[in-house]
């Protein structure tokens, strides 16, 4: 058992619904074990600037249902430099913080990995990103809420598509990953999906539109932000319109609504479980690991493994989009 007295907690990178539930779990679990908690505002940026405050039971009251992050978040160039990390470490020592819980995605863990190798401070991470693009957890905190937001929006788009006999190209988030597009494509009965991990390509899309059922009155194509088929939904839309002038085509970019809103039950429970497990992991001597959930069990994955590898796309899921949208 490691003697940890004061855990610093922060959120970094893009916000995700459920981050507040994770912060709450870290604070309450730490209190349960008699450990103090220091909140660090605006991620690594606030760490370097010493933007710290003491957290207690009340600091996390009534936040489990709130989207965003009460600790705020930022992307920080300074932390990429040795000087920036030295500043951050000095601030932690000054404030007597002797362990860290970092909540975020690959950028957050890249920083944590370097920091943990340079300085003798245990750091563990919680997967907080809507993109679900980390290895070592079945789902990331925020993904479930985001895909439900997308499904709700696309269902509404489907109503207008159906009324006007239109084809909609809908762009969803996922800079490097098509996991939001894949799942929501299945859930909304999309005609086709374009994702960075599969090579459907423009020809593949045209074929699906050309040889698909002719009596369809509405069509939805979901494009992941990171797909490089044509350079985004607008360009895909333009090329589809050019190829099929008889289709009444519209483009819709869902954007940051996917990052907001109250977290789903699944995200709240996931965040609560991994948040409490992070405190226990630090007590047990874990460091430089992300705490995730695999098949319902807490799983520990070294940062470098969590960020380096893609959890992969199940080809059967891609086939399912095709098979079921006939
Ligand atoms: O949180 C991840 C993500 O949603 C990516 O899919 C997207 O590319 C990125 O954030 C956009 O973030 P921002 O607008 O904050 O730079």
TrEMBL record:
<feature type="active site" description="Proton acceptor">
    <location>
        <position position="131"/>
    </location>
</feature>
<keyword id="KW-0460">Magnesium</keyword>
<dbReference type="GO" id="GO:0048029">
    <property type="term" value="F:monosaccharide binding"/>
</dbReference>
<dbReference type="GO" id="GO:0042802">
    <property type="term" value="F:identical protein binding"/>
</dbReference>
<dbReference type="GO" id="GO:0061621">
    <property type="term" value="P:canonical glycolysis"/>
</dbReference>
<dbReference type="InterPro" id="IPR015912">
    <property type="entry name" value="Phosphofructokinase_CS"/>
</dbReference>
<feature type="binding site" description="in other chain">
    <location>
        <begin position="256"/>
        <end position="259"/>
    </location>
    <ligand>
        <name>substrate</name>
    </ligand>
</feature>
<dbReference type="InterPro" id="IPR012003">
    <property type="entry name" value="ATP_PFK_prok-type"/>
</dbReference>
<dbReference type="GO" id="GO:0003872">
    <property type="term" value="F:6-phosphofructokinase activity"/>
</dbReference>
<feature type="binding site" description="in other chain">
    <location>
        <begin position="189"/>
        <end position="191"/>
    </location>
    <ligand>
        <name>ADP</name>
    </ligand>
</feature>
<feature type="binding site">
    <location>
        <position position="250"/>
    </location>
    <ligand>
        <name>substrate</name>
    </ligand>
</feature>
<comment type="similarity">
    <text>Belongs to the phosphofructokinase type A (PFKA) family. ATP-dependent PFK group I subfamily. Prokaryotic clade 'B1' sub-subfamily.</text>
</comment>
<dbReference type="GO" id="GO:0005524">
    <property type="term" value="F:ATP binding"/>
</dbReference>
<comment type="function">
    <text>Catalyzes the phosphorylation of D-fructose 6-phosphate to fructose 1,6-bisphosphate by ATP, the first committing step of glycolysis.</text>
</comment>
<feature type="binding site" description="in other chain">
    <location>
        <position position="225"/>
    </location>
    <ligand>
        <name>substrate</name>
    </ligand>
</feature>
<feature type="binding site">
    <location>
        <begin position="24"/>
        <end position="28"/>
    </location>
    <ligand>
        <name>ADP</name>
    </ligand>
</feature>
<keyword id="KW-0418">Kinase</keyword>
<dbReference type="InterPro" id="IPR000023">
    <property type="entry name" value="Phosphofructokinase_dom"/>
</dbReference>
<dbReference type="GO" id="GO:0046872">
    <property type="term" value="F:metal ion binding"/>
</dbReference>
<keyword id="KW-0547">Nucleotide-binding</keyword>
<dbReference type="GO" id="GO:0016208">
    <property type="term" value="F:AMP binding"/>
</dbReference>
<keyword id="KW-0067">ATP-binding</keyword>
<protein>
    <recommendedName>
        <fullName>ATP-dependent 6-phosphofructokinase</fullName>
        <ecNumber>2.7.1.11</ecNumber>
    </recommendedName>
</protein>
<feature type="binding site" description="in other chain">
    <location>
        <begin position="129"/>
        <end position="131"/>
    </location>
    <ligand>
        <name>substrate</name>
    </ligand>
</feature>
<feature type="binding site" description="in other chain">
    <location>
        <begin position="216"/>
        <end position="218"/>
    </location>
    <ligand>
        <name>ADP</name>
    </ligand>
</feature>
<feature type="binding site" description="in other chain">
    <location>
        <begin position="173"/>
        <end position="175"/>
    </location>
    <ligand>
        <name>substrate</name>
    </ligand>
</feature>
<keyword id="KW-0479">Metal-binding</keyword>
<keyword id="KW-0808">Transferase</keyword>
<dbReference type="GO" id="GO:0006002">
    <property type="term" value="P:fructose 6-phosphate metabolic process"/>
</dbReference>
<comment type="subunit">
    <text>Homotetramer.</text>
</comment>
<dbReference type="InterPro" id="IPR012828">
    <property type="entry name" value="PFKA_ATP_prok"/>
</dbReference>
<dbReference type="InterPro" id="IPR022953">
    <property type="entry name" value="ATP_PFK"/>
</dbReference>
<feature type="binding site">
    <location>
        <position position="166"/>
    </location>
    <ligand>
        <name>substrate</name>
    </ligand>
</feature>
<keyword id="KW-0324">Glycolysis</keyword>
<dbReference type="GO" id="GO:0005945">
    <property type="term" value="C:6-phosphofructokinase complex"/>
</dbReference>
<feature type="binding site">
    <location>
        <begin position="75"/>
        <end position="76"/>
    </location>
    <ligand>
        <name>ATP</name>
    </ligand>
</feature>
<feature type="binding site">
    <location>
        <position position="14"/>
    </location>
    <ligand>
        <name>ATP</name>
    </ligand>
</feature>
<keyword id="KW-0021">Allosteric enzyme</keyword>
<keyword id="KW-0963">Cytoplasm</keyword>
<feature type="domain" description="Phosphofructokinase">
    <location>
        <begin position="6"/>
        <end position="282"/>
    </location>
</feature>
<feature type="binding site">
    <location>
        <position position="106"/>
    </location>
    <ligand>
        <name>Mg(2+)</name>
    </ligand>
</feature>
<comment type="pathway">
    <text>Carbohydrate degradation; glycolysis; D-glyceraldehyde 3-phosphate and glycerone phosphate from D-glucose: step 3/4.</text>
</comment>
């Amino acid at each position: 058992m490691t003697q940890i007295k004061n855990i610093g907690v922060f959120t970094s990178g893009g916000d995700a619904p459920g981050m507040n539930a994770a912060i709450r779990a870290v604070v309450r679990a730490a209190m349960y074990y008699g450990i103090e908690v220091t909140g660090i505002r605006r991620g690594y940026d606030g760490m370097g600037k010493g933007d710290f405050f003491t957290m207690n039971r009340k600091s996390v009251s009534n936040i489990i249902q709130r989207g965003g992050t009460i600790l705020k978040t930022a992307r920080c160039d300074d932390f990429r430099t040795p000087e920036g990390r030295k500043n951050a470490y000095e601030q932690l020592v000054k404030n007597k913080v002797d362990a860290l819980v970092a909540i975020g995605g690959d950028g957050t863990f890249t920083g944590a990995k370097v920091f943990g190798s340079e300085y003798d401070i245990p750091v563990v991470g919680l997967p907080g990103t809507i993109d679900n693009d980390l290895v070592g957890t079945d789902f990331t905190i925020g993904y479930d809420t985001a895909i439900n937001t997308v499904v709700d929006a696309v269902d509404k788009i489907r109503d207008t598509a159906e009324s006007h006999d239109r084809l909609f190209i809908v762009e969803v988030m996922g800079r490097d990953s098509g996991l939001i597009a894949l799942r929501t494509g299945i859930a909304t009965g999309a005609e086709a999906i374009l994702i960075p991990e599969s090579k459907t390509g423009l020809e593949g899309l045209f074929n699906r539109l050309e040889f698909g059922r002719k009596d369809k009155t509405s069509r939805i194509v979901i494009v992941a932000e990171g797909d490089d088929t044509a350079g985004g939904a607008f360009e895909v839309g333009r090329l589809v319109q050019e190829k099929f002038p008889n289709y009444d085509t519209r483009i819709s970019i869902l954007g940051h609504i996917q990052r907001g809103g109250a977290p789903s039950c699944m995200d709240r429970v996931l965040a609560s479980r991994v948040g409490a497990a992070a405190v226990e992991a630090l007590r047990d001597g874990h460091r430089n690991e992300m705490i995730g959930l695999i098949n319902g069990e807490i799983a520990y994955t070294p940062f470098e493994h969590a960020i380096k590898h893609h959890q992969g796309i199940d080809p059967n899921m891609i086939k399912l989009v095709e098979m079921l949208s006939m």
